[in-house]
Amino acid sequence: MTTGTTSPTDTAPARTGRRPRGRYGAPAALIAPFLVLFTACTLVPIGYAVWLSLFTEHRSGLGFGGSTTVFDGIGNYTHVLADHAFRSGFVTIGCYVVLYIPVMVALSLALSLLLDSALVRARRFVQLSLFLPHAVPGVIAALIWAFLYTPGVSPVVAALGGGLNILGHPLPAVVNVAVWEWTGYNVVIFYAALQAVPREVLEAAVVDGAGPLRTALSIKVPLIRSSLAVVALFTVIGSLQLFTEPTILQGAAPGITSSWTPNMFAWTAAFTNDDYGVAAASSVILAVAAAALSFVVTRATRNRPARRTETAA
Amino acid sequence: MPTASPRPARVARTAAALTASAVSLAVLTACGSSGSGPSAAPAAPGKPVSLTFWGWAKGTADVVAAFNASHKDVHVDFQQIPSGNAGGYAKIADAEKAGNAPDLFNVEYAKLPEFVSQGYVQDITKAVPDSVRSQYLPQTMGLTTLGGETWGLPLDAAPQALFYRKDLFGKAGITTAPTTWADFRADAVKLKAAEPSTRIATFFPDDPSTLEALSWQNDAQWFGTQGDTWKVNLKDAGTAKVAAYWQDMISSDLVNVMPSFSQQWTSSLVKGDTAAYLGAAWGGGVLKSTLASAPGQSGQWAVAPIPSWDGQPASGMLGGTTFAVSKASRNTAAALEFAEWATTTTDGIKARIGSGTSSAFPADPSLVPVAKSAFDTTFYGGQDIYGVFVAGAASIKKGWTWGPAMGTTNTSLTDSFGKLSSGGTLAGALDGAQSATVNALTGAGLKVTQ
């Protein structure tokens, strides 16, 4: 690994007065829109949320004189963290992830392995149809499923004898919607990874006498393990944001409470209870949790190739 | 010119990049719509005052159209918003916080104290003359008077009423509507015996307002004030009796448990699986428009006074809407001119009821005959439904006060109601709502006794 390396000084350009501007002008101009939007749409709102989370509304007398905003330090944070409803939102997410990820990953893996095998006719068509549910916005999907779940309205419930009370079990109801929405999307990712598996490895397996099933399970799946891990981790992070589907289903399933997920807790605090301080504090806590998880994911995915070369060497 | 200096190309690239970013930013900023805030500037002489108004009550668009057609000095810009708990209140609260709220908006009696204490509502005590104030039913004016000041003009009173299917009741051998809650339970048993899939009514787990009205009917007082202290008591004897009764109705499977005004509820009405609806005066229009296209419904429905515990007429108030002026509005006079016209004039009430979708009971009792003649009662077999509402309105119990954090109270109740099918109880729900409400009030710096 020593050949071909050049010391940085060899290639560093002679810095004249004008060159850096010419050199960095185009990248700066291309990055500027992102930076402007990132600042305006992400950094500023986060800063504002942090600011809001430090204040609370106070009233006097019977409260009809309006309210005054007072500094409360970390009062909103301690309030939120002590709130049983907020913590149970994370428990809901935990149960959701435990139920959702194995089902969704197994299903998309199985479908992508089938697509990658010689068994499937009309591959393009199948791929497109699998992906199609993902093109349906979450709100619409939840509305459709709410209709399909409702006894007395749904043809599905009627076909199953009418006794199915899926709305009484919100967790599987929401997981089912998510599986429907995301399986096709992850099939695309897994299928792309499978296409990148070196053909000579597969040929070697065939020469060694492995059948299609054995090839799939012992060769293909281990070789796309990193894709599996990435999908699983991204799904966990995405699950923290769970809001749309349960919020829509709430109209049909009273078992979904107003603080069923942490995002719903924040929404209710802001728009039903008019407590922007608590809403901001819970959002900041959620953002920190998501950022921590994202950090873990980026570290994990960045280290993987290095580790593989180590073991290969 | 074999080799060109890289500079012109680079300059061109930079220019292209700059143009691209400028274009993309322009496109993005163009996507943001320019919202219209309250029309702050008073109108120039000769030009009408333009007034923004948000609401959702049935028939409001017709009222605004009639007002605009007959008034040269004020023009109302009406925007239909989702009903309060379905997102309307969130929209108003956000707009108030963002400083682009409408001049005038609708808010139900139950939510008014919370909006007042959030500082969203203008004190209109001085702007409303006593001659106007005295036109409204005292119970409704009482609910818009908080801390001795006036905060809104009542649109409707909402006496409770029982809407029921005459044919289904008749099939079960019931000839008269129940007058007591004991009768109501007995009728529920008969209806279920006659047709196993039929339940007498529905308990709405997503909406505590029926339980609140039934508690009100039974002399409960969840909230009260003593000096500058709030009294919160969701567990008085009146409420406990109502909660125990409905707990038994649910546990004995004598009522359906379904979300209010949901597809599921509508479907059960259409199929005859639900034989009655515990509503209020405004429910007459809602039920009629909900079932307008369903076959075999028109003419089968009738209205009766809400059953009571002792058979004597008694009612709480279920819903009911007011007009409130935004704190920041500078068009108070024009806003009140419209609100008064909509609530206290023949033309205003006629326009609302004539829309065919509203059976609101005017808060101004002198206009009840106007509403009565404007409402088409074919759906109720020609019955004088306003006659039932008038008796109901006269029996509305006095002294009920809504709390200053009904959002919190109702959210807590609704969350607990959702667990009724998995072991939750109404008594437990009331316990939870009591402590959630007390915590919210003390957290906001208010003094509370229990």
Oligomer: heterodimer
Largest interface between protein chains, with number of residues from each side: A-B, 46 and 62 residues
Alpha plus pi helix count of chain A? 14
From the alpha-carbon coordinates, what is the Rg of chain B to the nearest angstrom? 26 Å
* DSSP helical segment count of chain B: 18
Structural class of chain B: alpha/beta
CATH superfamily of the largest domain in chain A: MetI-like
> What is the strand tally of chain A?
2
Per the CATH scheme, the topology name of the largest domain in chain A is: MetI-like fold
Average pLDDT score of chain B: 90
- Termini separation of chain A comes to 13 Å
User: Helical residue percent of chain B?
Assistant: 40-55%
**CATH fold category name of the largest domain in chain B:** D-Maltodextrin-Binding Protein, domain 2
Determine the strand fraction of chain A and express it as a percent band: under 5%
Q: Which CATH architecture of the largest domain in chain A is right? A: Orthogonal Bundle
For the record, the CATH class of the largest domain in chain B is Alpha Beta
Mass-distribution shape of chain B: globular
CATH class category of the largest domain in chain A: Mainly Alpha
Report the C-alpha radius of gyration of chain A, rounded. 26 Å
